[in-house]
Specification:
The complex is a heterodimer of chains A (about 250) and B (about 325). Chain A is built from twelve helices and no strands. Chain A is globular, with a radius of gyration of 18 Å. Chain A has one domain. Chain A has about 250 residues and is an all-alpha fold. In chain B, about 15% of the residues lie in helices and about 40% in strands. Chain B has five helices and 18 strands. Chain B has an eight-stranded mixed beta sheet. A seven-stranded mixed beta sheet of chain B has the order 2-1-6-9-12-14-15, with no helix packed on it. In chain B, β17 and β18 form a beta hairpin. The radius of gyration of chain B is 21 Å and the shape is globular. The termini of chain B are far apart. The relative contact order of chain B is 0.12. Classes of the chains: A mainly alpha (about 250), B alpha/beta (about 325). The interface between A and B is large, with 45 and 47 residues.
Chain lengths: ~250, ~325
């Protein structure tokens, strides 16, 4: 047996850990708002509620894949474009709640990078280049100086995540899968806390072949897209997210 | 040496609207050229009732047969010189006819240059994709960044919306593909530019497990309104304020009746209450966000009429559009 697992496996486990202090547990990506808006439809039975959630999960994954994955992968390959990607992602997220969620997690990731991960980057040229770009971005984002057009750096999550994976020597396919799986995990955990499904049901959905297939299809579809082509494929998601602010009571930040 | 004769460079579907400024302050529609299947019609320019200083030009964007046949391509360039005002309208919804195969895509590209102080108001009818249609469109707005400190940037009030097809024929988001992209760029004089806003929607049946209708829940129309510039600032604030004033989702209405029943209620509040009542009858769902100097409003409704009614009442209650551009700007929303 090969006794030394690769360095990338170690990084993969670190970044997929729900204990990574990103605060992703605080966000439901529109699920809470969706449930509040559709209460009367789901009141009939438990199975209707679960069914509606499964559809939501699939739409949400597809939408995150089509809006954010191209940014994750472009940043992964082109560390020099990080600031442009940050600007363009900000321009493409005209929803207060989604924007806040992305920036909060992006800043958290930068802090983790700064204080923890940056110290253990491998010596390969690719990782070093990505690490340099990340550290430079972290420094620049602290100054908050507006550019020529009066726009500022925002630290959005997707491009920073892509580059962090690069710095930690993850493969492109691993990066894409990890990004979407983390989103699915956050949504499922939110669903458990919002009492839509139970913890075992959540694990069974997470382990299911259906979810794996859904993620694989999304990746296959989106890897061909450039960041400029990133698009919203579930427009109603923007409405749920935007209207999260109107909920009478909230347990999540998005 | 340049050619002194007029060269007809117009290609099929190409069009140009150039609203020039004759010194010192007379706007003039310098060019409107177009080629089949696009047709541009410009009625006599108007002035607003309260303020006769500004001449407002209107152009109708028409297509033969009221829509696009599979494979049609339209490319429209719009140029607004400083301080000019332009209303773009359509005459009824733009129909997208069915395509023989998903590979035959019809498309429409509009590129608009907005000089400092000018206004573009584009509130069209919704696009109506028929069953098996295949369509892509893009609207690029290039806002010139004012160089002198005294100049104010250009102003944008543009709407992009799409309906679920011919409901009477049982169509419900039954097209092959619908893609619409709106981009606002800030442009420097040296050709440098930066993306300010991108709103890109893609609905492709092949990408979606099940059907597009399930993605759209029970909405029959979905739209995005983009507001930018100092002249539309108060309109943007109005949307933000009204959004905050919406009743809470999932809350109980404890305050439905007052104890004495004779408090002073101002006119604005009464209108708001009336509008919100209509809004919930029509099932309109909307949200507004103020980002990067723009206000972006997204809305959906289970009927086209409901969505239209809501948007019309919002725009007329606030009043900026009618005050700055006249009643004509809202013609498609009536």
């Amino acid at each position: 047996m090969n006794t030394s697992p690769s360095a990338s496996l170690h990084a993969l486990l670190l970044l997929s850990d729900s204990a990574l202090p990103l605060g992703s547990f605080a966000f439901s990506s529109g699920l809470e708002s969706f449930l509040a808006h559709n209460k009367q439809h789901h009141a009939s039975s438990v199975s209707a509620k679960v069914q509606a959630f499964e559809a939501f999960l699939e739409h949400s994954l597809a939408n995150v894949a089509s809006t954010a994955l191209p940014y994750v992968l472009t940043a992964y390959h082109h560390s020099e474009q990080l600031e442009d990607l940050d600007n363009d992602f900000d321009a493409s997220t005209p929803c207060t709640v989604a924007r806040r969620a992305s920036i909060t997690q992006g800043r958290a990731l930068l802090t983790i990078w700064d204080r923890a991960l940056s110290a253990s980057v491998s010596s390969s040229a690719d990782s070093q280049e990505a690490a340099k770009a990340l550290t430079a971005f972290a420094t620049a984002s602290k100054t908050c100086k507006p550019d020529l057009y009066g726009l500022q750096l925002n630290s959005h999550f997707p491009p920073l995540f892509g580059l962090t994976c690069r710095a930690l020597s993850l493969a492109e396919s691993e990066t894409a899968y990890l990004f979407l799986l983390n989103h699915a995990k956050a949504l499922l955990s939110a669903a458990v806390r919002a009492s839509v499904i139970g913890p075992y049901q959540s694990q069974s959905l997470l382990a299911s072949e259906k979810l794996q297939r859904c993620i694989a299809t999304c990746i296959k579809r989106e890897t061909a897209r450039t960041a400029e082509e990133a698009a919203v494929t579930s427009p109603v998601m923007d409405l749920w997210m935007g209207r999260h602010e109107l909920l009478y009571s909230r347990i999540f930040n998005s | 040496m340049s050619n002194p004769f007029l060269v007809n460079t117009a290609k099929p579907g190409h069009g140009l609207i150039h609203l020039a400024l004759l010194p010192p302050s007379t706007p003039r529609l310098k060019t409107t050229s177009y080629q089949y299947p696009l047709k541009l019609i410009s009625p006599a320019p108007s002035r607003t009732e309260g303020d006769a200083r500004h001449l407002i030009h209107t152009v109708y964007l028409l297509t033969y047969g009221g829509g696009l046949v599979a494979g049609d391509a339209i490319e429209l360039t719009v140029i607004l010189e400083p301080t000019t005002r332009l209303i773009l309208l359509t005459q009824g919804s733009t129909k997208l006819f069915k395509s023989p195969s998903p590979a035959v895509v019809s498309n429409q590209r509009t590129t608009t240059t907005i000089a400092p102080g000018s206004i573009l108001c584009y509130l069209p009818d919704p696009v109506q994709p028929f069953e098996h249609s295949c369509f892509e469109q893009s609207q690029d707005y290039h806002v010139t960044v004012p160089s002198a400190g005294s100049e104010k940037p250009g102003n944008l009030c543009v709407l992009d919306w799409v309906s679920n097809g011919r409901q009477a024929n049982g169509e419900n988001w039954s097209f092959h593909r619908y893609a619409s992209r709106n981009e606002v760029y800030l442009c420097m004089s040296e050709g440098k530019r930066r993306l300010l806003l991108r709103d890109n929607i893609l609905l492709d049946r092949n990408d979606i497990e099940g059907n597009v209708a399930s993605r759209m829940h029970s909405l029959a129309v979905f739209g995005t309104l983009i507001l930018y510039g100092p002249l539309f600032q108060s309109l943007g604030q109005f949307f933000m304020m009204e959004f905050k004033a919406l009743s809470r989702v999932g809350g109980r209405k404890w305050d439905s009746g007052s104890e004495s029943g004779d408090e002073e209620v101002d006119a604005a509040t009464i209108r708001r209450v009336q509008r919100q009542r209509q809004e919930s009858t029509d099932g309109v769902l909307w949200s507004a966000a103020s980002v990067r100097g723009c206000v972006v409003v997204k809305f959906g409704a289970p009927t086209v009429e409901g969505g239209k009614r809501w948007l019309h009442s919002m725009l007329t209650h606030e009043g900026t559009v009618v005050r700055e551009l006249g009643e004509r700007a809202l013609l498609c929303l009536r």
